[in-house]
Design a protein that fits this description.
The protein is of the alpha/beta class. The chain has helices at 41-47, 71-83, 95-103, 126-134, 138-150, 176-183, 190-201, 221-227, 237-254, 261-274, 276-288, 296-305, 309-312, 324-341; strands at residues 2-6, 21-23, 26-28, 49-55, 62-64, 67-69, 86-92, 109-111, 113-115, 156-157, 208-209.
Length: 368
């Protein structure tokens, strides 16, 4: 019988011969470093860290907007939580590297999709016995349902505001003045920044995603730390937009090899959503196949292909699996909305106040 779940193996580092323990998702060997032959569950809990080595893929492990996902990863995370340990994930290129991690004692667990059988050997130390008794078959369906729920259209909690606050008056949102002020720093049309903001949060300054991204421009707390934005200010419109523009400026510099401004902006938008490292992988694939790596129309098909094992397992790809369809759609929707906004000429174009207009009390929103 084949299981779309992980093989979990506890690395064997001692000279002592060990018999494998086969559980519903694979084979287990205990973790026993040479320097401490009896290193077991209590020692792992004392160290506070359980190390998982795995490969990239939708069923193993992948990063999605700063949130770690994948069926095997989620099972391992629950097990680590039950032990009171932090789960550290090391992503490997292939099964050979996983085996090396076991042999060199660099991992406690390894995970990948593989055939498995439901068998058990009672002669195992505490960690293996705890893992065997902890596991329940319903976990597979449970974590898959959890992951599906996080990836639905309601993954961002927000109020929906109109994409045009006052078309006749030339007002897109309450934050137009902020878009006008800060877009100058990156030499963007302010309406493009407004279009991106609507795609991120529908102009809701209190929006929050399942991964923890917050505010108008959906900034992750870790990104806020990097940008020097206090986490307490993530919901403040001006601080959030200013930080997002700072991040966009970093992405602009990182894609300075793309000389044409319109094209570079497409790559920046894609990177804001899906991560620059994945976009660089898609560019490398496009270049290899004789396409123009600096043209979004040539690269976006490869962003989509990064969801396929044929491509995310290609040696030229450095950062593995990606849910590329969302990123391609993200760029397309922003460009379409920007085209619709380009007819807007605000009567306040010459005024660059840093404060947004007072919030509209009209019922132009609803909760999702």
């Amino acid at each position: 019988m084949y299981f779309l779940v992980a093989i979990l193996l506890l690395s064997s580092c001692s000279q002592k011969k060990q018999e494998p323990l086969v559980v519903p998702w694979g084979v287990i060997n205990d973790t026993v470093p040479e320097r401490a032959e009896n290193f077991d569950l209590r020692d792992i809990q004392t160290s506070g860290e359980l190390i998982l080595a795995t490969v990239s893929g939708p069923d193993t492990y992948y990063d999605y907007h700063g949130k770690s996902l994948g069926t095997q990863y989620l099972i391992c995370q629950r097990f680590a939580d039950s032990l009171g340990c932090h789960l550290r994930v090391d992503v490997c290129r292939d099964s050979l590297e996983l085996v090396h991690r076991l042999d060199s004692c660099e991992a406690d667990l390894i995970a990948w999709p593989t055939p498995g059988h439901i068998e058990a050997d009672r002669q195992k130390p505490d960690l293996a016995a705890t893992l065997e008794s902890w596991y329940r078959p319903h976990l597979i369906a449970e974590v898959k349902a959890e992951e599906t729920a996080m990836l639905t259209t309601k993954k961002v909690r927000r109020r929906i505001f109109s994409p045009m606050l006052d078309a006749k008056g030339g007002i897109i949102s309450h934050y137009d003045q902020l878009f006008m002020t800060y877009s100058r720093e990156i030499r963007w049309d302010w309406r493009l920044l407004a279009a991106q903001c609507y795609q991120e949060s529908t102009f809701d300054p209190k929006a929050v995603s399942f991964a923890g991204a917050k505010g108008l421009m959906q900034i992750m707390p870790g990104t806020a730390d990097h940008l020097g934005l206090a986490r307490s200010k993530l919901y403040e419109p001006e601080a959030n937009i200013a930080a997002a523009v700072k991040y966009i400026a970093e992405l602009e510099r990182s894609f300075s090899d793309i000389r044409e401004h319109f094209e570079r902006t497409n790559f920046v938008l894609a990177s804001y959503n899906g991560g620059a490292h994945h976009i660089r992988d898609a560019m490398a694939l496009a270049r290899r196949d004789g396409k123009n790596p600096h043209r979004w129309a040539d690269v976006s098909p490869y962003v989509l292909k990064l969801a396929s094992p044929q491509y995310y397992n290609d040696p030229i790809v450095k950062h593995g699996y990606m849910r590329g369809s969302e990123t391609v759609d993200y760029v397309s929707r922003i460009r379409q909305r920007h085209a619709g906004y380009q007819g807007v000429k605000s009567p306040h174009m010459g005024f660059h106040s840093s404060k947004p207009r007072k919030a509209d009390k009209r019922k132009n929103k609803y909760d999702i």
